[in-house]
Write a structure and sequence with these properties.
- With 158 residues, the chain is of the alpha+beta class.
- It has a single domain, classed as Electron Transport, Fmn-binding Protein, Chain A (Pnp Oxidase, Chain A).
- The chain is 25% helix and 41% strand.
- It is built from four helices and eight strands; from the N terminus they run H-E-E-E-E-H-E-E-H-E-H-E.
- It starts with a helix and ends with a strand.
């Protein structure tokens, strides 16, 4: 989980996916505020948004995906989302960019936190430098050994 936390906190913007009324996936970007000790990922959201209605209609099930194309790192998370209206927690996580979306600040009646509890996750973490990634690709192509391309792990946090 520690490696997953590092990757998510580095990438920052996650694509939150929910199921719409017709059973189709809808994804939208959210800025990651924090990954806490218990593995929950925190976001500011509008409680009246479609994403929250869709999430609640589907029993809280959500997906969150992250990508860093420059480093070739990727994360896919399946979890359970929950709306949290704790003012003290909101104050802890508040930062100035949120005001653009919630001009009334912490007093905005629509402002909420979304806490996503990670149930399952999968990540691909490429070697740190471009040279190492190129070496890994060349070796994989020549030998079929994909080990040097990076780390791939599955996590079941349930």
């Amino acid at each position: 989980m520690e490696e997953l936390k590092k990757l998510v906190e580095h990438m920052k913007v996650g694509m939150l996916s929910t199921l719409d009324d017709e059973g189709g996936f809808r994804s939208r970007p959210l800025w990651t505020l924090e990954v806490d000790r218990s593995g929950r990922i925190w976001f500011f959201v509008s409680a009246a948004s479609d994403k929250i209605e869709e999430m609640e209609h589907d029993g809280g099930r959500v997906g969150v995906n992250y990508a860093d194309l420059g480093r070739q790192d990727f994360v896919s998370i399946t979890g359970h989302g929950e709306i949290v209206r704790d003012k003290a927690r909101m104050k802890e996580l508040w930062n100035p960019w949120v005001k653009a979306f919630f001009p009334l600040g912490l007093d905005d009646p629509d402002l909420s936190l979304l806490a996503v509890t990670v149930e399952k996750a999968e990540y691909w973490d490429a070697p740190g430098s471009l040279v190492k990634r190129l070496y890994g690709m060349m070796k994989a192509r020549a030998t079929g050994d994909t080990g040097p391309l990076g780390e791939h792990r599955k996590i079941d946090a349930r």
